[in-house]
Amino acid sequence: MIRIMIGLLLAGSAFLGWQATQQRATIARYEAAVSEGGEAEQLSQRILRSAYSYTQYKERSAKEGVKGDGADQVNSYVFGLAADPNVLWGNPKIEKPREQERLKGYTDYTYAIKPAEKDAWFDRNRIANFFFLLEKNSRKLRITSIDLRAAQKNLATHEIPEDRWYVDLSVTMRERAK
Amino acid sequence: MARSCGIRIGPRRFELVVLDGSPKRQKISAYYAGEFTAEESVAYAAGDVSLVAEVLKDAAVSHRVPKENVSVVIPSDQAAYRRLTLPFADRTKIDQVIKFEVENELPQFDIDDVIVDYHVMAENDQGAELLVSALPKDCVSRAIQAMEKAGLEPLEAELESSAMVNAALAADICHIDNAQLLVHVGEHSTCVAVVAGAEIREMRVIHIGAMSHLMGELEAVVKDEAEQDTDEQGPAEEVDGGDVADEPAAPGELDPIELNRRIDQAIKRIRREIGRTISAARTAQPIEAIYASGMELPGLIGSSVLDVPVYVLDCFEEDSGQPAEGAGQLVAAYGGAFRQLGGGVMSPSLRREELTYSGAWERLEFPLAFAALMLTTFLGMVNIVNIRKIDALNYTGLLSYLRNVNAFIVGTDSSTARPILNPVPKDLLDRSKVYGKGVKLGGDVAEPLDELKTIERMLDKKVLDLKREVGDIQEVPLPPSAFAAMTCVLNVLNGHEGWRPSLRALNADFVKKSGEYPEHTKIRLSATFFADSVPEASNDITAFDAALRAQPWCLEVEPAAVTPTEGDKGLNFKGKVILVDPSKLFSSRAN
C-alpha cells in the first residue's frame, strides 16, 4: 500500500514539477512582455500601425475602378470614365474580350474600344484625359494598344494638322491562367 | 493494537503463540502446540517442507494467525555458540568482520554455509564482547520455506535460546543481584543460557532432548521408504542423537522397561550437563535458580541440581491468556512473538543477510513516502503561487494592453472617439467584446498576450488582402502600358526647343516577350520635322533618333524613309518603329 502511495506521489510530483517549470516559463514571458518596451508594448504598436494601414488600404480599395473580374465590370468602368466631363467620349463601343496567353501561365483579356461613331474625333486633351483616367483608377488594367490618326482630310505634308484626331484603343486585364 | 505471532518449528513438534498488545502489556489471543507425524518429520528433515507446511497452514487458519509480523523460532539442534572479543564496538565494522573472526572457532562448519549472528554482551572504548551464534543456512531456509508455503511471511528468524532469554527477561525473574540458568528442552536438544545480573552471559547446546529416545522411530520410517524404493533412494539419513541415538530402535520394538531406562538415561544426562554448566559458569552473582521451559521432563521440575532448585519458566503475565498447564512449552514461541511486538533484550536476526536489500528498502519506505508527500505538497504550493502570479500578470498587466488596443482599433461603447479601423471588421469587434468587464480567462477565452498576437495576425492578413486588392502587391505581372510608351516617345519629340515636329499618326501595340527583349510596346510614329532647310530637318531627325536611343526605356529605333515637304521646308517620315519597355521608365526614375 505504502509503495503504491510512494509511486502515486512521485508520479504526481513529476507532473507538478513539469507544470511548475511550464508556469515559471510563462511567468518569465509575461513579466518580460509587460516590462517597458516589452512584447506587449511592441505588439500594441504594431497592431495600431496595421490598423492605420488597414483603414488607408480600405480607402484606396474603395477607389479601385474595376471591382472584381469580368467584362461587365470593365464595361461599366470604361463607360464611367468616358462620361467624365474632361473626357466626354459618349458611349464607346467595347468589343467582347479576346483571350490570349501572351505570357506563360497568364491569360490576357483584351477589350477593343472604339468611339460610338465611326468618324468621331477628339482633341488631344480629351484623349489624354481618357487614357490617363483609365490607368490611374485601376491597377488591374492597362492600355496595350493605341491607334492615333489625324482626322483632317487631305492633309498635305507641309501643313500643320488641326487638333482633331481619330483614335482606337485596347485595354488588357491579365489574370492567372485557370 | 499491534498483533504478532511467534512460531517455533522443531524436528517433531511446533508451537505457535499469537500476541495482541504492546511490549509493555500484551495478551495471548491464540496458542497451539502440535506434533508432526514421523513421516512429516522425516520429510522435513530431508528438506521436503510440503507436509509440514500443510500442518502449519491448518493451524494458522484455525487460530487466525496474522500473515504479517510473524517470527519463526528455530531449534538449537545444529547451532553453535561462541564468545568473541573484538577491539572495536562499531556495529557496521562488526557486521563486516564477524564471519572472518569466528571462522576459526567453528571448524565443524564451512563458514559460507552458515548464518552467523551475534549479541553484544559488553562494550567499551577498548572493544566489544560478543556472544556469537552460528547455524547452517539450510536450517533457516527450510523453516522459512515451510512458513511461506503455509502462507505466512516471517519477518524474522531466531534461535529458541534467544527467544527463551527474551521471554525470561521480560518476566521479571532475572535481577541485578543474582544469576539464573535458563533451560529450554527441545525434542532432540536442550539449550542452556546463563543469565547474571539480568544480562546474558553464556549459551550452550546439549545434544539430547525430550524425544531423543524416539529417534529410532524416524529411522524406521526411513528404512521402510528405502525398502519400498531401493532403486530410487540411497541409504537412509542418519540422525545424530547422541548417546541415545547410538542405540536406535523403534519404540514399538522396545519393551516399556527399556523405554523407561532410556528416558531416565536422557534425564540424567541432561541433569549432568546442567550441573556441568553450573560448575563452569563464571558469574559474579550466585546462581539462585534454574528455570526450565520447553518439553516437560519427568522429575525435573521441583528437583534441584547441585543444590540449585529447578522451577518452571513462567514468563507469562497473570491472566494473560496462557494455558493453565503446559505453558512452559510455549516459551520459545512466546519469546518470538514478544520480540515481534518490539520487546526483548536480545535482537537476533538470522535473516539479516537474506533481508539486507529488502530491509534497506523497508527502512527507506517511510522516509521516502514522507519525502514524496512533502515534495508533492511543496510542488502543489509552488503551482498555486505560480497560477496566482500568472493571473496577476494577466488581469492587471496584459489585459490592460489588450483592452486599450481594442479601444483604439474598434472603439468602445462608452467612448465617442472614432476607432482607427474604418470600417471596423465584425470579427475583430466580436472578439473585443469577449474581453470586456468580468472576463474570466481560460477555457475558450485565450490569454491576453495570445489574443494580442491573434489580433495582429488577423489584421496583417486583412491588410495583405487589401494590398493585393489595390495592386500594391502584384501577384500578376501587368502588360506594358501603350499609353506610358506613347507618352515617353512624345515627351522626347517635344523635348527640344529647336525642333519643330508635327505629329501625323501614332500606333502603339503590345509585343510578346521574344529573344532578349521582354514584353514591350512597338510604336510606329508618323511625323513631319519642319526646318529652314532639308539638311537642317535631317539633322533634327537624326538628333531625335539619338535622343530616343539615349533613353533607358528605348530598346530599339529603326530609321524610316524620309521625304521632303513641299517647298523643301522640312522632312516627313511614316512608320518609324520605336521599341519601348515602359517598365524601365519607372526603374530609371527610382534609380
Q: Which oligomeric state applies?
A: heterodimer
Kindly report the average pLDDT value of chain B. 86
Helix content of chain B: 25-40%
Structural class of chain B: alpha+beta
Q: What portion of residues of chain A is helical?
A: 40-55%
CATH class of the largest domain in chain A: Alpha Beta
Number of contiguous helices of chain B: 15
What is the CATH topology classification name of the largest domain in chain B? Nucleotidyltransferase, domain 5
Structural description of this entry:
The complex is a heterodimer of chains A (178) and B (591). By secondary structure, chain A is of the alpha+beta class. Chain A folds into two domains: 2-63; 71-176, Alpha-Beta Plaits. Chain A is 47% helix and 22% strand. In chain A, strand 2 and strand 3 form a beta hairpin. The mean pLDDT of chain A is 90. Chain B is rod-shaped and about 180 Å long. Chain B has three domains: 2-354, Nucleotidyltransferase, domain 5 (2-Layer Sandwich); 373-470, no CATH class; 482-590, Alpha-Beta Plaits, CATH 3.30.70. In chain B, strand 18 (562-564) and strand 19 form a beta hairpin. Helices cover 40% and strands 24% of the residues of chain B. Chain B has a six-stranded mixed beta sheet. Chain B has a five-stranded mixed beta sheet with strand order 3-2-1-4-8. The chains are: A alpha+beta (178), B alpha+beta (591). Chains A and B meet through helix 1, helix 2, helix 4, strand 4 and strand 5 of A and helix 10, helix 12, helix 13, strand 15 and strand 16 of B.
